[in-house]
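=== RUN LOG ===
request id: a7f3
mode: sequence -> structure
chains: 1
length: 310
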Amino acid sequence: MKKDLLTLYDLSRQDFEVILDKAGRLKKMLYGGVPHESLRGKVLGLLFDKSSTRTRLSFEAGICQLGGVATFLSRRDIQLGRGETIADTARVMSRYLNGIVIRTFGQELVEEFARWATIPVINGLTDLVHPCQILSDLFTIREKKGTFEGLTIAYVGDGNNVANSWINAAARLPLRLHLACPEGYDPDRRILERAINETKEGIKLFRSASEAVSGADVVYTDVWASMGQEDEQEARASAFRAYQVNETLLGYARQDAIVMHCLPAHRGDEITDSVIESPRSVVFDQAENRLHVQKAIMEIVMGGSERSAT
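=== RESULT ===
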């Protein structure tokens, strides 16, 4: 049975642990100079409707390090952009590829593609969720804190795809999630209500950023206007002014709290330059860990071997 990664809500606690443990082993092997070509001969497709730095590079570098190759496609490069159906595209690509990462706008496109594809489908980002990002974030928190169990994650800013995926993770994992969003910019209501009913540790939505951050172990933020929302930039800047992660806000968190941002950052808007460059910031470790976690995901869903190359 093929394995897809469409949303974190589909994962069990054990699935999270398997992915993060494997990422740790793969990172250790890479730093130790141990070749590990578990996906030799495999081809990964990257179908992107949105621009990308970290997602594209981490998957391309990752498949290469695992012995496979990647082929990059945008909608304008293929017949999907000229009216070919998702069902036909998925079935054809399944004959050529061993797995595919899709980065697009609508979650429904990824889900329909997965219904028709006979190869694993990985959600590289949609407007609704960003599962690979939060898996990498959890890996980073575990590296820095030793565990994520019992910690309080304070997410400050727009209730976007990153916030929605944090909510999905909180429904499955023993961590507390505090969300601080201005009115009118809340996370997806269905995702939030479902997770609140299922979480054991608790999810709280605040209007006050300082209340959400109070006592937090992790302070997390993201851009105020995501891709496709550029025409809302001015209105969002006004609505989010009180949600900037700065030295004053960080003072409400625990003294050993770490600061995270999934990047790209608009310095001076959602986060100040002094905070993102401070010793408490782990944003570049966080970005690097996309590589190791993406490799783990690919190895799991594409059937990679645990054997190292000789």
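=== NOTES ===
The beta strands are 43-48, 69-74, 99-103, 121-125, 152-156, 176-180, 203-206, 218-221, 258-261.
The mean pLDDT is 95.
=== END ===
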